[in-house]
Structures are given as C-alpha cells and as structure tokens.
Specification:
- The chain has 13 helices and twelve strands.
- By secondary structure, the chain is an alpha/beta fold.
- A seven-stranded mixed beta sheet has the order 1-9-8-5-4-2-3, sandwiched between helices. A three-stranded antiparallel beta sheet has the order 7-6-10, with no helix packed on it.
- The longest helix is centred in the last third of the chain and has 19 residues.
- It is globular and about 65 Å long.
- The structure holds pyridoxal-5'-phosphate (PLP).
- The site of pyridoxal-5'-phosphate has 14 residues, from helix 3 and helix 4.
Length: 351
C-alpha cells in the first residue's frame, strides 16, 4: 500500500536522536532552544514557544487572547481538523462556524456575516491543506472590529501569502508538528507572535512562576528531529509542489474531477493534495483496492461534528460529500507517482 503520507527522515535525525540519548540531556537542552529560535527566524516573527501539540498551541493561544466564558465567541471555518473547534470549546468559549470558499479556507463574506451576528472576540482562519487563507480582507475586517486573528497554521509550514510566511499573518499563530506534518516530530506544536504583551500572556500559561501553568514541553528528541526537518522544509515543500504539478497536469481534464487550485499571491505547500468528485466514496474505495492510500478529508463540517452555532455553510457541507486526498509526501518515487496517476485515471474514467 502506498500510504497517504510518510515522514521524510534521514541520517541527520537518526544521528541527533542517538546523540541526545548519549548526552543524558533529554529535555530542556540545546536542541529545544535551537529549534525554537530557528523556527521563529524561519517564520520571521518575534517570539516562539514550543508546546506538545497543535491542539495545545491553539488552546494556549485562545487563553492568551482572553477566551474564558461562553460569552467569548470564536469564529472558525466549517472545514478543518476537529482540533480547531475543540480548542475553542476546551478554552471555555463558544465556537461559531462560517463557510469556506473555493480555496477551502475561511470565506470573507461568510466571516463578515458571522461577525455581524455574533460579535466574536477571536477569528481563527485555517490555512487548510497547506494554502494560506486570504488574510488581507480577514485582517482588515477584524482590525476594524477589534477582533484578534489566530492563524491555525498546523498544515502550512513554509506556505506564503504575498511573500510572508503563514504564521506571521495574524496576531498569534499555532503550528502542529504531528507525524504527518510538513515539519514532523511525532507530536509537537508551536505558538508564535510578534506582540510582547501576548508573548507574556502565553508565557504565563506554560512557564511555571507567578501564575498557575501547564507543562506542555517537548523533549530534546522532538526538538532535535524538528530542527533537521526544518532545515529540509523548503526542499521538501518544493518536492511536494512538483508532485502536485504533475498530478494537476494529468488530472485536469478528467470528467467530474476538480483539482486543487493555487490562488494568486499564495504559495501552497500541499500538506494534503485534495481532489473533489461527486462519486468520491466509490473512487476512494477503488483506489484503496489498488493499494493507494486514498482518504476522505474531511467527512463532516465542524458545526456538524460539534453541533455548533453557524451561519450558512452550504458550500462546505457540499464539499464534505466530494472531497478526498491521495498520497502526497516528498519521498514518493517516480514509479509510485506514475502508478497513482495511472490508477486515478483508470478509476475516474470508469466510474
Ligand atoms: C488544521 C489543524 N489544526 C490543528 C491540528 C492539531 O494538531 P495536533 O494533532 O498536533 O494536536 C491539526 C492536526 O493534527 C490540524 O490539521
């Protein structure tokens, strides 16, 4: 079976893990610091905190932004991994769900409707599948209404919007370094901000001192692996983009199939290569039979999953009936890519 994703580890990660074991310094050491500083510099922000998951990163960000009670509303897009909405619920706030656009990210008109109706404190655009949301109109709208913007950049390491990295486009950003991510540590996350006062608030939540805090630290092993993953990120994203280009070229004229679109002024890093087809379930089943790890991302919208208040999200609801992903990772071989292309063509043409 060709898996849907595979981490891209090499000898550097291997050597570093062994080095850490031999050193005896397995947490709070040089790799944790090195990773944190490198990631901050890569995204080009002021402050970076590493935490144990993307979910923790979202949760702490929301607490730092003052989400405490049911009166604190937070707008999330209808299509995302459930951690985006769960973090809001866990922080004590009320999630409000808005629709997505053709880029599969938050739709600005729908967001405006949600803001008018619910008066939220925070908005969480998700850079879904590796393409940044259309951040300028989102930021403009939120600035005008005094609303914080928290980027969910869990799927968008190295993605860009108008030349700026995802993670530098709002007030705070949350990353995940889960096993499947473009920077993978097994588990891990990061919170970034340019604001010293928000940085202080984040620190209060995760560093023991004057305030009650949580231990959400990563170990030296995770940081050591993450450091080398980061050194290879641009090269690996280029590989993903080349595979996406090949897929797009071969799939663009297949009947009923909608290929992903990279929007102007945005750099898509194809964390997930998502296709759409009205006969999605049959296609996924047939691809799996052929040994291709196709998968549905995502089967339900967030308001359906958590029974959350929402504005009209009919586009996202339609998308969840059609969307699926095929294998995408930097170490896919030419033979595997050719086999995937041939199989998708065969299956779609015979549906
Ligand atoms: C969009 C999105 N947000 C949040 C998360 C949560 O990250 P984690 O699994 O590291 O908790 C993930 C992925 O796993 C994700 O894809």
């Amino acid at each position: 079976m060709i898996p849907i994703t595979k981490p891209a580890f090499g000898p550097e990660e291997e050597k570093t893990v062994l080095e850490i074991i031999k050193s005896g310094q397995i947490t709070r050491g040089k790799w944790t610091l090195k990773f944190k500083e490198s990631f901050r510099d890569y995204i080009d922000t002021g402050f970076c905190h590493t935490v144990c998951s993307g979910t923790a990163a979202l949760y702490i960000s929301l607490k730092a932004l003052g989400i405490n009670s049911k009166e604190d509303k937070v707008v999330v897009p209808a299509l995302s991994f459930m951690a985006t909405i769960d973090a809001v619920i866990l922080a004590g706030g009320t999630p409000i769900v808005c629709d997505i656009g053709e880029d599969y990210c938050m739709d600005v008109n729908s967001l405006e409707e949600a803001i008018e109706k619910y008066n939220p404190k925070v908005v969480i655009p998700v850079h879904l599948f590796g393409q940044p949301a259309d951040m300028d109109p989102i930021n403009e709208l939120c600035k005008e209404k005094n609303i914080y913007v928290l980027e969910d950049a869990a799927q968008a390491h190295g993605a860009e919007y108008k030349g700026f990295k995802a993670g530098k486009l709002g007030d705070i950003s949350a990353f995940s370094f889960y096993a499947s991510k473009n920077v993978a540590m097994g588990e891990g996350g990061a919170i970034l901000t340019e604001s010293p006062s928000l940085d202080d608030k984040i620190s209060n939540w995760i560093e023991f001192g004057d305030h009650p805090a949580l231990n959400l630290r990563i170990t030296e092993f995770q940081a050591g692996i993450g450091y080398w993953q980061l050194q290879k990120l641009d090269e690996n994203n280029d590989k993903r983009r080349k595979i996406a280009e090949l897929y797009n070229k071969e799939f663009k004229d297949l009947p009923g199939l909608i290929i992903p679109k990279e929007f102007e002024n945005r750099k898509h890093v194809y964390h997930i290569y998502a296709l759409r087809h009205p006969n999605r379930d049959e296609i996924v089943e047939k691809l799996i039979q052929k040994g291709i790890g196709a998968r549905v991302y995502y089967e339900y919208t967030l308001h359906q999953l958590r029974d959350a208040p929402h504005v009209d999200c009919s586009f996202a609801e339609d998308i969840t009936k059609e969307i699926f992903a095929i294998p995408m990772y930097p170490s896919l071989t030419k033979r595997e890519i050719d086999f995937i292309i041939k199989s998708v063509k065969e299956v779609v043409q015979n549906i």
